[in-house]
Give the backbone structure.
Amino acid sequence: MSDDQRPDPDKLLQQVQQEEARKKRGRLKIFFGASAGVGKTYAMLSAAHEAHARGIPLVIGLVETHGRAETEMLVADLPLLPLREVSYRERVLKEFDLDAALAFSATHAGGSEPPLILLDELAHSNVPGSRHPKRWQDVEELLAAGIDVWSTMNVQHLESLNDIIGGITGIRVWETVPDTLFDTAEEVLVVDLPPDELLARLAAGKIYIPAQAKRAAVNFFRKGNLIALRELTLRRTADRVDTQMQDWRRMATGGATGQPVWATRDALLACVGPGAGGEVVVRSAARLAMQTGLSWHTVFVDASSQQRVDEAARQQALRALQLAQDLGATTATPTGAEVAEVLVRYAREHNLSRLVLGRRPGRRHWWGMSLTEQMAELTPDMDVLQIPLPKIKQEGRKTRWRAPGSSSTRWQGYAAAVAVCILITLATTPLHSVLELTNIVMLFLLAVVGVALRYGRGPATLVALLGVAIFDFFFVPPHLSFNVSDVQYLITFAVMLVVALVIGQLTASLQAQANTASERERRVRGLYQMSRELSAVLLVEQVAEIGAHFMMAEFAAKSALLVPDDHNQLQIQPGASAGVDMAVAQWCFDKGEVAGRGTHTLPSCACLMLPLKAPMRLRGVLAVQPAQLVQTSLFTPEQRQLLDTCASLLAISLERIHYIQVAQASTVQMESERLRNSLLSAISHDLRTPLASLVGLADTLSLVSPPLSVPQTEIANAIRQSAQRMITLVNNLLDMARLESGKLRLHCEWQPLEEVVGSALTACDPILGVRPIEVRLAEDLPLLHLDAVLFERVLINLLENAVKYTPADKAVHIGAEVLGDNVCITVDDEGPGLPAGREEAVFGKFERGSRETATPGVGLGLAICRAIVQAHGGRIQGENRMEQGRVTGTRLIITLPRGTPPLDDGSQLHATLPDKDDV
Amino acid sequence: MNKVRILIVEDEENIRRFVHLVLAAEGYEVFEAVSLQRGLIEAGTRRPDILVLDLGLPDGDGINLIRDLRTWSTIPVIVLSARSYEADKIAALDAGADDYLIKPFGTGELLARVRAQLRRQHIKASTGESLIIFGNISIDLVKRSVNRAGEVLHLTPIEYRLLTHLISYPECVLTHKQLLHAVWGPGHIEDTHYVRVHMANLRKKIEIDPSRPRHLLTEAGIGYRFCRLEKYQSNGGTTSAISVANCSDFPGG
C-alpha cells in the first residue's frame, strides 16, 4: 500500500531534531582495544598530531604514558592542559582538570573547528571529591559543552560485557563505562594487535604493568584470554557497525523502507529480585536490548512491606536498578504482595511483550510454583526468558529475616511471644479443671492473632509452636509430659498448629498491608496538604517554608529552596535549614540535572540537589540534606518519586507566583497606560477646544458689521496668530508625550515617498509662500513602509524648521535616493547651518539651534522627528553643507530601511475584473 | 432661490457661535443642535442643505448620526474633528461623510469647504455633463478619452477608473478603502498600496508638478480628494481670506 511507503512525519521530525542536537554536541571518538598494550594511546596521539598539523585547536587533557618512550615523545609536541592537584588522604594526586578544559574550549569556541580534548582511559575513576566520580561523566559534560573528545578504552570496561569477561579471565574490573556512551560515540576505532605480537611486546617489557598487579596481570595475559578478548572487541565493534549500517539504510530510504525493521514497538521487561543476581539479569537484558535494538524497562517489585525481605538484599536490588538506569533502561519499583501479578500488570500497562527473569536453581516458592511458572500461567501471550543465576551461598540466606522496625523491637516481639505463652499457661493452669481443652486451644489461637497483629510473622509463628508444645506438655493428659494418651490429640495438635500458623501469617500480612496502605495514605495526605497549602501562597518565602516543613515531616531531612534572581544567580530563600554548597546548586540549576548526594555529580556534597522544573523553565533548586542518622546515601525509589513530586509541586507553585507577579505588573502597566491615555486625550481636548474657539472667534471679528477699524483688525489678527502658535505648541507637547510613552502604534503601509512629500508640501503651502522648493526623488525609489500621518509630520517639522531659520527667498531642497539596503532622504536649506559641535544636540528636547533668539518655538520639532524616525527603524542626523570651506546650509538626513515591498500592485488583478462604468 | 440652510451639530458653545456667525454672515440660514438626538430631529425637521457635525458629542458618537442620516438623505456632511484621530475620521468618511475639518480651523477654511460642497450639489443637479475640464485637463466621459493641453493622455484602465471615480465626487475626501472597493472590488480593501502606486502614476500624468499636486490631493493616512479648483488653501489665515474671496468668484460647475 502506498501509505506504508510514506515517511512518518513525526519520525522525520524526530530525526531532524536528533541531528540538530548531535550537531550542537561534541563528537566522541573512542580508540578501542582488546587489552592493555595494544597501542591505543599511541594511535590516539599519532592521530592527534595529524589533527594538530591541520590546525584543529586541541589540548591533551590527560595521557598516561606509562613511561613508554615512544609515547612520551609524541606527547612532548602537543599542548598540555595543566593537571589539577587534589589532596586525598594526605597524598597529593594529579587529576584531569575539567574546569580548565571547559575554559580552554570557551576560548576556542566559535572557530571553524570545534576544540578537541584528548583524555586517556575513559573508564578511570576520579579521585573522591571531584565533580564526577567517573571520567566518562567528565567526558559527557565536555561533549554537552560542544567539545570534541578523543579517548581510549579496553573492552573489559564495557558495562554489559563486564561480567562475561570477568568469567573468562577470572579478573573482575570495577571501572566500567555504560554501553550507551559507547554506542552514541561518533566514531569507534579498533586498535588491534594479534595476541602473539602482544605477548611478544609483553615479553620485551614494552607493556607497563604496576608491580602490585604483576601476578594478576601475568595471569591475565594468557593467549586464550587474549584471543577471547580480541574476539569480543571485534564482535562488539561489528555490532556497532551493523547498527550504523541499519541507520544508514533507514536514512538512505528517507525512513520509508518497505520493510520496517521492527514490526511492533514491543520492548523488554527485566525483572530484578532481591539479593545478588539482579545485576546479571540487568546485564543480560541490556545486551539483549542492544542486540535487538529494543527499548527496555527494569522493575523491582518491592514486596518488603508484605514479605520479609532482607534489607541488604533489597539494597542490592536497588543497586541493580540503578545499574539498569545507567545502561539506558526505564526503571520502576511497583509495590505489591503478588510479585507475578504486579509484573504482569506492569508489562501490560507498558506494552512490554518479553520478560527477562532470573532463574535460581532449586529455589521455589513455598506453595510450590516458581515465579517463572506463575508468569507463564498468567501471561500465555508473552515470551518469558530465563537467565540462570548463580546459587546463593548459604550464609547469605541466614540473614534474610526482616521484621518491621529495628532489631530491638524484633527481640521485643519474641520476648513478648514467650511472655504471652507463659501468661496463658499461668492463667489457665488453676482453671484447668474448669476450662475445656478446646477453650485453651482457642486462647492460644487468640494469642497468635494478637502477637501477629502487634509484632508480625516471626513472633506469631513462635507463639503457634510454643502454644502447641505447652498445650501438649501442660494440658493434655498425661500432664507435664509430651506423651499423649489419646491419639486423637495428635489431630488436635496438627490442626492447632496449622490454624495458628495460617492465622498468624494472614493476620501479619493483613497488618502489613494495612500499614503500607496507611503509610501510602499518609504520604498522599502529606502531598495533598502541601499542594493545598501551596495553592494558596502568593510569596516565594511561603513556598520555601511549606517545602521545608514537608521535607522535615516526610523525610526528617533538612532542606533549602534556592530561587534565581534576575541574573540567574541562585539565592537561598529564608527558612532554609540545610547547609548548601552554592557551586553545586548553581551547577544543578545551570544544567537542569540532579546533583549532589547519591548522584553522579559531586556525590560528596551533603545535599541532594533537585532542579525545580516547571512547564516553562527551571524555577530553582531544592536542596535536601538527609538527617545524619540515615546512613544510606541513596534515597529509595519511592522516596525519590516522592521527592520528585514534591519538587515539581514546588516548581509549579514558583511558576504560578512568577506569573502572578507578571500579571500584576502588566495590570499596573495597563492601568497606568490607560490613565496616561485618558489624561492625554482629556488634556488635548480641553486645551484645543478653547483654542479652536479663540482662533475661530478672532477670525469672526473681521466679519461683523460695522467693519473693524484698521488697528482693531490688526489686534484681531494678532490674537489669531498667538492662538495659532499656542495650538502648534500644544500639538507638539502632546505628540512628544505620546511618543515618549513608548507605546506609539504605527499604522505603517507601503507607499511611494512622493505622496508623503507631496502632502507635506501641500500642508506647508501657507508658510512656504513663494519660497522656491526643489524636489528631486530618484526614479528607482521603492515603496516605503511608513505611517503616512507621522512621516508627513516629520517632513512638515523639517520644512517648518527650514522656514524658521532661513530668509524667505532661500530655496529648500528635498531629495531621496537608494543607498544599499536603505533609503536616504535629505532636506537641505540655505541658512546659516547648525552651530558647530551641536549637530546631535539639536535633536534633544527643548533644544534650539542658538539659545537666545526671537524665533518662536520650544525646540520640540526635531526631537519629535527623531522619535518618529526611530519608531520606523531609521535614523536622522544633521550636518552642515560645506562648499569651499564655507557653510552653505543645513542638511538633515533621514535613513530608512528599505524592507521588502510587495511586488503586486493590483494591475493584473484589475484586468480580470469585469469592466464597469463608474461615471 | 431659497436661502441655503445649514445645520450645525456641536456641543461646544463658542465654536458653535463662531461657526454660526461666519455662515450667517455669508448669507446662509443656520440652525443649531447641541446633541446627537437634537441633531437628528433638526435634520429631519429643518431639511438642511449641508450638515456640519462634531464627532465628539455628549450623548453619542457623531458617526452614528451619519449612519442614521444616510438612510434617508444624501446631503453633504462636513465633519469637525480633533487632530490625530485618523481612525475616527476614516470611520466617519466610510460611514458617508463627505469632508472633514481639523480643529482648530479658520473661518476661511470652513467657508471654502461649505462652498465646495454646495458647488458639488449644483453639479449633481445638472447631470448629463459628459465633458469635465479642470486645469489644462479635459475628460470626455463618452469617448473615454483624457486630454492634457489638447494632447491625448494615455491612461491605463485602472488609472482611468481611479480618475473618473475621484472626479465623480469632487471636493469630497475618498478613503483608500472606498477607492479600493470601487476599482478592485471588495476583496482588496486592505491593499492600500495598490491605490497609492496607481495614484502616483496618475499624478505624474495629470499634475504639472507631481510633488506639489493641485488637483489630486493626498489626505495623509486617510485617502484622496479631487479638487477642481487650482489652489486649495488648507491652513487658513489672513491669506486664506483672500483665496476664499477668489474661490467664491469661481463659477461653480
Remarks:
- Chain A has a mean pLDDT of 79.
